[in-house]
User: What shape does this take?
Amino acid sequence: MAIWHINGGRRLEGACFVQGSKNAALPIIAASLISPAETNLLNVPCLSDVSQSLRILRQLGCTAEQYQNDVYIDSRKLNNCIIPKEMMQSMRSSVLFMGALLARCGVVHLTAPGGCKIGSRPIDMHLDAMRCLGAEVTEENGEIICKASKLKGNDIFLKYPSVGATENAMLAACGAEGETIIRGAAKEPEIVDLQEYLIKMGAFINGAGTSRITVSGFEAEASAGHRIMPDRIAASTFLCAAAATGGDIELRGVDSRHFLQLRHFLNQAGCDIISSDRSVRLISKGILHSIGQVQTEPYPGFPTDAQPLLMAALLKAQGKTEYTENVFEGRFCHVSQLRRMGADVAVCGNTASAWGVKSLKGAAVTASDLRAGAALIIAALSAQGKSLVIDRGYITRGYESLDNKLRYLGADINMEI
Assistant: This one.
């Protein structure tokens, strides 16, 4: 349990580096199991989800250590293919060990994964992909067993561009004979980063970033080194916080092409945004305008993870903005807490309508998931008075030293554990 103490009304100013991507690091850590090899990863964020992933590797017999933002993994001593239930339920991305272990061992024992409660998140597409490659999948008493004497390449058709199912299919296909084509694949930048790592591990793979990914073989390398891409959702969080507080910040070490939709909306709301190859600067005068319609969609559309952040940034924007959530039906849990701060937001089905208010007031609120927690912090930074954000560990799952970075930019914020 953590309590974030925030005195709002302070303008964010200055420059900071953005952490490595959580959503890129976690599948790459799982991918390190595909063959017996040593892996050195750079720019890995210090997060509870990363710690849990490394803990799973150690449970499986591997060496897995993190020193600041460097991670060393030695998977040569893998001696286990069973992931305990409590480890699986610690985070959503634990399901990615399914494809990696099936590729390496031909068998894996696990259970359904945990993670934020933001709606229905079945793993049927993951299991169907394993079956498509020749695995026998059994589910009994909550346990899932996937096994195959030999995986065989095949065409995998994803009925929805699921990021996790795409990644799991890529990992399992690395252990299959022949060619695998993943059709309807997700296109997120994190999938491109995973492909770059797999190539370094010895995979013959191409197409990441498009809807068609081909895996045509694997010749194991003894070692691989890789630098994790910057976190586009963490970058979005800082930009939204600066917009909400009338700030002027520069984010360094980012690829602004990864959040073009957010830049467009913040610019439309009245912020000035200046981008270069590895940085982006946002200048907000604190007087924002509504932007009409926002719809979440798979990449390259507007990301569901950024929807709560943008809503929090525009709570005082003049006019009405509608947010239609097309990915997770539970993505509006933050709305009731924002109302406690004086926000004027109404939810009907999968659409939230927000009317800008003149000011927000500090309040005690509770985070229901990772991005909802970040949204509450953004709202608290722009509110008058003191806010308490009560968090059951969600925020540290996705943000490295968020309190320290915000303080460095001028926020009055402290986290109490």
